[in-house]
Protein 1
Amino acid sequence: MIVDYVGHRIWFFALSLLVILPGVGFLLTAPGLKPGIDFTGGSTLTLSFSAPVEQEDLRLSLADQGQPDSIVQRMEEQVYFVRTKELQEEAKNLLIDGLVADLSLPSGAESVAPVIEVPEGRSAISLRMTQEVTEEEIFGHLDRLGHPDATTASTEDGSYMVFTRELPDAERDALAADLVEALGDPIKVLSFDLVSPAVARETVIAAFWAVVMAALGVFLYLWWAFRNVPSPFRYGAAAVLALVHDSMVVIGIFAALGVLFDVEVNTMFLIALLTVIGYSVNDTIVIFDRIRENITLHPNRSLSANANLSISESLGRSINTSLTLLFTLLALLLFGGPTIRVFLWVLVIGVMVGTYSSIGIATNTLVAWESGDFRRLFGLPRRRASSQAA
Amino acid sequence: MRRYARTLIVIVVLVAVSATLLAVNPISVGGFQRGGDTLLGLSLGLDLQGGSHLEYEAALEDPVTGEKIPPTADQMDALLRTIQRRVNNSGLGEPLIQQIGEDRILVQLPGVEDLERAKAIIGETARLEFRHRVLDVERSIDGVSDGAAIDIRLEMEPLPTAAPPATSSPESVATSTPESTATSTADAMTGDEGELAPVLVIELTEEAAEVFEGVVDQMRVSLDPPPGADVSYLNYLKVAVQGSTSTLTVPYAPVALLPTGQAIPVGEEPYIERVGTSTTFKLAVWKAGLTAEDAQTIFPEGSQISIVEVLGKLDEEIGLTGEDLERAYPGQRHGTGLPIVNVEFDSEGTRKFGELTTEIAGTPDLLAIVLDDQELIAPTVREPILGGTAFIEGQDFTFERVRDISLLLESGRLPIPITLIKEESVDAILGADSLAKSVVAGLVGLALVLLFMALYYRAAGIVAATALVIYAVLLLAIFKGLPVTLRLAGISAAILSIGMAVDANILIFERMKEELRAGRTLLSAVNIGFNRAWPAIRDSNVSTLITCAILFWFADTLGAPVVQSFAITLSIGVAVSLFSAITVSRTLLRLMASTPLARRLSIFVPGGRSDLPKQTAQAAASPGA
């Protein structure tokens, strides 16, 4: 019992339109596909933390502060190089405050009992710090607090000694507290700059044209490969249509996500899209091959009948192939790291849509073409039937 | 069994070699070096591997004031592109290059191998100049020559007590230790202390003294060869007397000339010195070997003495630079086999070079070639070179250095000079923690796939699983061996090609299943199944290869490295997958078909015995079928 897939092709087309049209709508609404920092550039920050911070925690915290797609690279134990969306001074300060709160960072400095002898006529403050501090910074604060004549020394255990003129205990302790507050920033911003895009617009445009030319290449190859079958160029056209369809679905979905949930697309998205296109073409060709074989075996059957037969025969294989890929992708999504999530989701959607489109779109286009559906659609008169439509 | 033995051996050997290639880390056999700190020693891109974080600042200075000039947006843009070209062509891996702020550049490079070379390739300005170098050029000194000096006269001074009179051999001068004291310029005919030594006293105006100080300083500097060169170009003072033909040439200090042309100072004491802070200079001609009598003969009382400067070299920049080159490529010199840089000038450059060499040919003048103020070489020119091609030799040229210089010349000099202001190491863009998890997850996923294949397609599935493992090993070994730098794009392409490899196997099995259901033996099912699945496998893989070729070509021309990386990795994946399907899967299946297992058809069919037509099942069950 063979299901009449192609007889119900109208439903397949309708389903596709149902998904694509809103997607296109979202694409045209601002901002459509939301470009991420790879494309727009943004800000870079070098942050020095007062205590060791896990990369995972920092990433989560940044996401909470509205920077889910920031790029985090560790430089040293407590120093990270972070790329975010463009930030003005105020926004940066808010971000830092948020991080401090989120990560419960301790003060980076504390006042401890001096471990060396205090010279006559001087008072001493001993500071232990968990971050790098420059002498300039210390002197700067000392100046500000009214002790331009103080001197410093660093001791073997990593603490700093500050020697001032003789002070009463209370004043000395107050000064120590001031210094701790001034120098003990849980997060020191070592650098804060605006940064240009990592990927030029030209690259995206270049990629687009490369794909267009590749699609042309596929079309031509299929025209040649299917030359022994009636109307060979339709196969190439249908395959390219399926390719476009898959791309539009993916782009449409991410445009919707961009408008509704501020999801951004980076270079990763581009790579995943290329992969989806590759998979889609591959999948479509396998089914077309079946159709060709069946036409050669049963040349007197209608295209619709051969198509239905081919689909039934290939269904097992199509599902299995896509399942194997989906297994791997799902494992990666569930257990893998957070940074490639967008990439994986595009692939998951792409594999499913690619499998669907080979049957629902590519094959149905062939049949529709054959049956003169398009002519009917455009109001053209039916051609004398030299082909046999169901 | 024997028929497939040969293929089987080939497969086993390939797998063994690949596995070894992957397992041994690092590898260093002869000139073949691979591997390092990364997983399996694979070459990984910046998104997957940590690396170096370099920050450069534009270092454009006003030549007069030394103040910094901020670069324009165009300059920064050109700078970014030039650096991108350089790094991409250097084989250092694909960099991340971004402009920071108004005048800084961030470059992140994967891995830390060859960091010094990377910094050189990025940071060298690479300004190549061809200069017309004239030797021994006389120049008058403002305020000193042509009678402009207040007075130049010969005086006699007592020699410092410890020193014997200087002779003309440098050795004795070197052993003397005169203390130079500023004595007054009053008459020095004391006679008692020791011999009298002739000294030329030069009195100048305030202004002229400054100028002359500069000249003397240059003379001192000229003792050393210019940066990068072997040869010194000494500046001299030429002392002449009006009406007489005798002249005296005096360098800054006594020197000995090595055969290479380098001048070695052989004494600390200069010939010429300023007297304290006055505007008077003393030229101690006695140190040059002149006795008192000789001096009085050459410089008689009341004679007009004039002093001019002789420059060891004067370079004329004629505007022929690296910008006028069409090509630069490394090579070897005929005969000596030493590394050289071959250059070809463009049409304008050929003309200028022809003019330059025509002017210089046959004269003692030199053609000086300078790279970033470092002298490469300054040869004489025998004949004019009109063909527009030349080669450049250098003192410390190694083969790697000429390769890099050619690269720098071809990619163009930096539009503005830059200095390195920060150098850190940084971890992977995708985050080391994230990647570690993903690798584990990926392996889990693959295991699931293999499990599924084995469960669904049963015995054939196990064949497929084996074939896939072999495929993965071969693929990774090729990535390591070529090497292919893997970025996220490459990983994605690899995933796709694995999917296609799985697909190919599934196509074969589905066909086999059909044939078995139609009642064939296992062996014929395998063969027919393969033959009928082949067109689909062939068409999809070939069209993917075509797509890759087109993608690659366009990405290369238009500049989209991400797409390029994807295309290369995918083509390798497809090629290996074709091999894996044709050779590995088929051979293993045929192998199985020729064993007793072949009778138990049920284990090859997803549905088990119930899926097979009744007769075959019965035949399979009974022996001797």
Protein 2
Amino acid sequence: MSASAAFEKYVCEACNYIYDEALGDIDSGLPPGTRMQDIPDDWFCPVCGVSKSDFKKITPVAKRDTKEATTARPVQKKGVVILGGGNAGWTAAEALRAQGYAGSITLVSACNGGRYSKPQLSGLQSQGGLAALKGYTAADDAARELDVRLLCNTWALQINRNTQRILTSRGSLAYENLILALGASPRMPAFKGEGNQRLHVVNDLKQYTEFNDMLSAVKKTAWEQDRSPHVAIVGAGLVGCELANDFINSGLDVSLIDQAALPLSARLARDQSIALKLSLQGLGVRFIGGARISHISPWQDHGAAIEMELGHGLMDVLKADIAIACMGIVPRLRLAESMGLQTARGIVVNSKTLMAAEHVYALGDCVEIDGQISATLEPIQRQAKCIASHIAGNPIDYEQRDTVWVVKTPCCPLIIRAETKHPTP
Amino acid sequence: MGASDFLAPSVRWTELEHVVVGELAPLVNAIDRDGLYPAAAMRSLGRAGAYSAHLKTQNAFAQADIAAAVQAMSKIGQTCGSTAFMVWCQDACGWYIEKGHSAALKQTLLPKVASGEILAGTGMSNPMKYFARIETLKLQGKKVAGGYVVNGQLPWVSNLAPDNILGTAFEVEGRPTGDAGRGQEVMAIFHCNWPGVALKPVPSFLGMEGTGTYALHFENVFVPQDYILADPIGPWLAGIRCGFVLLQVGMGLGIVQSCMDHIDRSNQTLGHVNHFLEDSAEQLREELHDIIERVHAQSDQVLDSSDANFAEVLTTRLMTSELTLRATQSAMLHNGAAGYALASPVQRKLREGYFVAIVTPAIKHLRKELHRIRSSAQQ
């Protein structure tokens, strides 16, 4: 290949991560300028874990002939309504258009509906902060490109499956087909004491931005006192560990707390957990395992004082300038339950059609397929394709695959491949 | 056919029917257009049990049956939306006193409100909007020996007359204001004929002129300790808010039922062309039953003061407003010129329907509160 040929970009079809030949993938040992064809076949997407063969070269495409901004269309034609403006919702809209669906698509988002890749959030601090977030698309732009009618900052309140109507906080909608992309909400801290509001949950960009602003204030104060700000992370699961790695690399003083003796113990084999713990400790993360939080009080302007029982009658109080709760996520079930859909831990859908009921589909973090909740990016593209195929008229079956979790801790990167039978804790 | 067919024994339905047909029906246009305040009919409705089904301490069955109260209001509202609204005012005031902390009023006033001997208004529109951060409180009180002295003006309070009472809230001088002070206000009952209380006329409305609606002016009105229902208001308000909102559903249901009847009637001669219209009687009937089912389910949970439960009640109320607007519009379109005539009840339903959609909590208020609660619950 001629050295002077332009570098190409490749997009991961599962999660939209872009491999830019010009930049390489340093963390995986690929220097800038590494051509795709020269990348070893056992390389995998650093965000979602799919293999090299799932990458597609990006070729410039003629812009789709779009209409005017769709946010204020007065009359809604019956068609598809998508509830949820996260990755799953937008991917579903994209898949419908890709398969030639020409009917009306309305997307309802409780937040501002901006599109972004959430996995990036656990690596931003060591890259300088929020400005390092790549590939953010405002909802209006995404809607215009896909010819989608958009209702942002809007909550679906009640759904009538017989009349196929949805009551929202901005008016009623009718649907021919409904796609639930409700996601999962973070477990909220409910410890004893008045300090629960001091534990930030950072499950989306808005929450992360609020946390980031608070962190800036905390950094300023700490630096004036000539010390590093101390961040406490409650919960050493996937996100907790990734954030701990990210924060320590950005110069913060980090404590990582968990009830279990080892980090990510629910998913990792014991030796992997130990390796992760040692790697994090090697960077300076203070790992406090076997800790039961007994009380949380507000501490100073933004922080929290965390009282813990450490077993054998030992107690400790950890004072942090700022604290984060990473205690897991729970599928959003309220709407599904209120409309009479079957729910267990997630919304139960047919494993081939992804239907929850007639005219009602669901995908993403809110669903349970054959008893499994994946809560990862990878299946979403394939789920969206399956649902779109059923709506657009050329149905293909969904294929459940083993879930793959990529633990993006640069100090000790791990891939967890679970058998589909393995229960998600 | 389900929950809507069951008639709770706490209301004397046959007697109620007689009052509606015999006393109320002849007055509907005078109430709507001429401002006739139907005090006598209101008292008769009280004697038939229209105001006590939801008050555990005031009916023979010792049950708080909100669903029955809603049903009674609905039956009345089929004939007269204005009266249904006043029935709600009466129901609400009884609810306030029963859930309030004045043993004296529970003994003296409550039985009379429950029976309709004393008619009662509710001036909670401004306080409810204040708690939803839509406007500021309009009444201010100052602590004095034996009670409070209250000043201020409320622009519209209904079901008032010189011999009536009302319940409303005021903020207290010296207590924190704004977000820090929310919940520190005081809830009290006032008599319309107390010194300093003045009922001022309000401009003409689109309809429903006979609802006893006045601007209420308070000038150094002394309210004695016995008339204080809650001080501070916070916990009491959390306890009454679901009942307050759920009870209102009766107003809308009556209008929807009436519209369905008018649509059915018009289809006898215009069915061949009416089938081109959406919101048919069948469609409305189905959605009406959904609301009634929700009322029955939520009737048992009215004392659950959580935001989650309140959101369910607010959703039922929102569904009712939206269905009422669609039903009244549909009745107008189904009936055509016949419904457009001033003599027709159909055009009156249209105007009554707007009232259901804008009386506090209005559609925009409901959506604002639901947005707040859903955002806080993250689903």
